[in-house]
Design a protein that fits this description.
The complex is a heterodimer of chains A (308) and B (382).
Chain A lengths: L1 E3 L6 H14 L4 E5 L5 H5 L10 E4 L2 E5 L2 H22 L1 H9 L3 H14 L13 E5 L3 H18 L3 H14 L6 E5 L3 H16 L6 E7 L6 H14 L5 H27 L4 E5 L8 H17 L1 H6 L1
Parallel strand pairs in A: 1-5, 1-6, 2-4, 2-5, 6-7, 7-8
Antiparallel strand pairs in A: 3-4
Chain B lengths: L2 H4 L5 E5 L6 H14 L3 E6 L4 H6 L6 E6 L16 E6 L2 H12 L3 H9 L1 H7 L5 H16 L4 E5 L8 H14 L1 H6 L3 H7 L6 H10 L1 H14 L2 H17 L3 E8 L2 H16 L4 E9 L9 H9 L4 H31 L5 E5 L8 H11 L3 H12 L1
Parallel strand pairs in B: 1-5, 1-6, 2-4, 2-5, 6-7, 7-8
Antiparallel strand pairs in B: 3-4
Helix pairs in contact in B: 2-17, 4-5, 4-7, 7-8, 8-13, 10-12, 14-16, 15-16
Classes of the chains: A alpha/beta (308), B alpha/beta (382).
């Protein structure tokens, strides 16, 4: 399951909350990060490790995928000691890492390996679900296309074969799903709609779009008017800040409502919503809270989802 | 410190930062503010919001800066714009194609390169092409010397550092030195990989299949001497970015993760010796002045508003303060980690910026002196 979306919309947070939910239901899950930021590990206050499968909670793992390490692993597995020698050659590393698309191919290759029922990595247990904290929308799509492109360039040989195999997995809706995360801002909504269109053109469907960080709607138009009047003339000193914050929140919820309507009009995929978290830090507790909301929407009352 | 002071004597301003922090808006506001002060400024945007693009008169990708009509710049709160504002929306594929056309010795060669599949991969889908072409465009515009100031918005990436790494990676590829060791250009390269090749090369061939190497080999054969042009350009680009007339501004929001990233990015800029000029922190929730006791506030309001509305105002205020505390802590953390580089804070505004009036509001904060900013904040929060 690829979780994608514009920068800053909370992809890591949503991917991890989905992971928590899956693990709660006995699905052995790994959240894979690609940008080398180890955000998931940090949210769980774990010592940060690279390229290791770390258990965060019962049945929930994480890994941070580094293309270079992925390459070394691949070479070792495919060609033994000679492969290791090649992988540790600095010149070869420079060559491989500079080859366009190679980093993406190696990252996707590792994701694919994680998802195999029989793991190549010796002693590694298989996962039921691999949640990918994918790069921002545009790059994310590039990532999904890379195996096919390589398969086409290579035509025959091991890369072609692997590329075709991975591409087939990614294109199969029974095996792979794409989840879009967005906030109710113009750009994020545009990207989500564009993503769905682009996927449709390649014969794929967006599994679900998750709206993150929706503000609570505390004030209606009438309330806002009263608050504005009070703020304008007779507000007692000391209360102005509070009125100002309320009016500001109202303006923002209005803007969000407008974007939510635009998203709902343009989108075919089902929509889910997560609340804005008024928290200083998104840690385990906040992630569990979001998993609760997702559970409510996806597991407890799935009918709401179908009727949308 | 105001942006005008930071950019004194600069010809290039690069705005870097993680995705979703208001980078494009900041870049556009910087350009607008400097134009208002009399400079001829071009802003190179990567992927602006549609409404902001329209406001700048950018209906589509265009590879040359276009002047924003002076009548559009007459907006409230900005004052007369004495200089010129130009804007463009980068088209990476076209920039790449144009670069090839310019460097290629003849049109036939350019055509052949553009049809090569390695080139297709290089110039489009793959991350890195936006970064590479953005810098290429910046360099070309700087060489043309038509503008007093160029403001570059950097591509939306997960990781702010991609922007610094990606062009280098691509140049390393185009430069071809590492590559030539493995794949000799022309047919000879493919033969060299056959009999008599080193054990490592035969492993490589076994792993990739001959066609990948052949395609790469063809690509480099087509590039020929052009690889040297790429290397030469890379050296000049590097010099331009390190010049004292260039300023890197870091843009972030006040949330924890972007601040972490800003700290990391700032450190990298300093370590790589790039001219790091300051940080813009967007969407800051400033502390609101309050009576000492929350109960006092309820009393103040209860005579004038119905109880349920008072309760909701207080609830909202409570949430606001969680964010204000968070932002204050994050900004403090950032300040501690910086090496004395100035911080410019822009408050959380009620709506996304999508027109020139919105930009003008940001300009007021970015270009205010410290005292003016204090005064403006006092207006906003009280």
């Amino acid at each position: 399951m690829f979780v994608t979306g514009k920068g800053g919309v909370g992809r890591s947070t949503v991917a991890t909350a989905l992971g928590l939910l899956a693990a709660r239901h006995g699905v052995r899950t790994i959240v894979a990060e690609l940008a080398g930021q180890e955000r998931v590990q940090r949210a769980f206050e774990r010592p940060v490790g690279q390229f290791e499968e770390v258990e965060l909670a019962p049945g929930l793992f994480t890994i941070s995928i580094d293309p270079q390490r992925a390459m070394e692993e691949y070479l070792r597995l495919k060609a033994g000691p000679l492969g290791s020698a090649l992988g540790s050659s600095r010149l070869f590393q420079a060559f491989a890492m500079a080859t366009p698309g190679m980093r993406e191919l190696l990252s996707v290759g590792k994701l694919w390996e994680l998802a195999q029922p029989r793991r190549r990595t010796s002693g590694a247990e298989p996962y039921d679900l691999v949640l990918v904290d994918a790069p921002a929308t545009g790059h994310g799509i590039g990532l999904l296309r890379t195996p096919r492109t390589f398969a086409e360039i290579a035509r025959v040989g091991p890369i072609a074969q692997l590329g075709q195999e991975i591409a087939a997995t990614l294109q199969d809706p029974a095996q792979t799903a794409l989840v879009a995360v967005c906030t109710l801002e113009e750009m994020a909504v545009n990207e989500t709609l564009a993503l769905e269109r682009e996927m449709r053109d390649s014969g794929l469907a967006l599994a679900v779009a998750i709206v993150n960080a929706r503000y609570p709607q505390r004030f209606d138009a009438e309330d806002a008017q009263r608050l504005a009047e009070l703020a304008a003339d007779s507000a007692p000193p000391g209360a102005r800040g509070a009125l100002r914050a309320a009016l500001s929140a109202h303006a923002r919820t209005l803007a969000q409502t407008e974007q939510a309507a635009r998203l709902a009009r343009g989108l075919r995929a089902p929509l889910l919503e997560l609340p804005y978290l008024f928290a200083e830090h998104v840690g385990r507790g906040e992630l569990e809270q979001l998993a609760d909301v997702l559970e409510q929407a996806l597991v407890t009352s799935p009918r709401r989802r179908r009727t949308r | 410190m105001s942006i005008a002071a930071l950019l004194e004597g600069k010809r290039i301003c690069v705005c870097g930062g993680a995705g979703g922090v208001g980078k494009t808006t900041s870049a556009a506001a910087i350009a607008l503010g400097m134009a208002a002060r009399g400079a001829k400024v071009a802003v190179v945007t990567i992927d602006p919001a549609r409404r902001l693009a329209n406001a700048l008169g950018l209906e589509e990708l265009c590879n040359e800066p276009r002047r924003v009509a002076p009548r559009r710049l007459r907006v409230e709160g900005l004052g007369p714009v004495r200089g010129e504002l130009w804007a463009m929306m980068l088209d990476p594929k076209r920039t790449f194609d144009e670069l090839i056309e310019r460097i290629a010795p003849d049109p036939g060669r350019a055509h052949a390169i553009k049809r090569n599949r390695i080139y297709a991969q290089l110039s489009s889908a793959v991350s890195g092409s936006q970064e590479f072409t953005a810098i290429a465009k910046l360099y070309d515009l700087a060489c043309e010397d038509r503008f007093d100031l160029l403001v570059l918005d950097t591509p939306p990436s997960r990781n702010a550092l991609d922007f610094l790494d990606a062009p280098g990676r691509l140049t390393a590829f185009l430069d071809g030195r590492a590559m030539r060791t493995f794949v000799r250009p022309a047919g000879a390269g493919v033969r060299a990989l056959g009999r008599g090749a080193s054990p490592l090369l035969s492993v490589l061939r076994r792993l990739t299949g001959i066609d990948v190497l052949a395609e790469i080999s063809t690509f480099f054969a087509l590039l020929g001497d052009m690889t040297e042009d790429f290397s030469r350009r890379a050296v000049q680009v590097e010099r331009l970015l390190r010049s004292e007339r260039t300023a890197f501004l870091l843009v972030t929001s006040a949330q924890s993760e972007p601040i972490d990233e800003a700290i990391w990015f700032g450190r990298t800029l300093r370590e790589s010796g790039l001219p790091f000029a300051g940080v813009i922190v967007n969407r800051v929730h400033h502390e609101l002045p309050l009576p000492a006791e929350p109960s006092q506030l309820a009393e103040l309001l209860s005579g004038r508003l119905e109880p349920s509305l008072v309760a909701r105002v207080l609830e909202n205020l409570h949430d606001y303060h969680v964010l204000a505390r968070r932002d204050a802590r994050n900004v403090e953390r950032l300040r501690e980690q910086l090496d004395g580089q100035p911080l410019i804070l822009v408050p959380q505004l009620d709506d996304d910026v999508h027109d020139l009036a919105g930009l003008a509001a940001i300009v007021r904060y970015l270009f205010a002196s410290a005292d003016e900013r204090e005064r403006m904040l006092a207006e906003v929060v009280c």
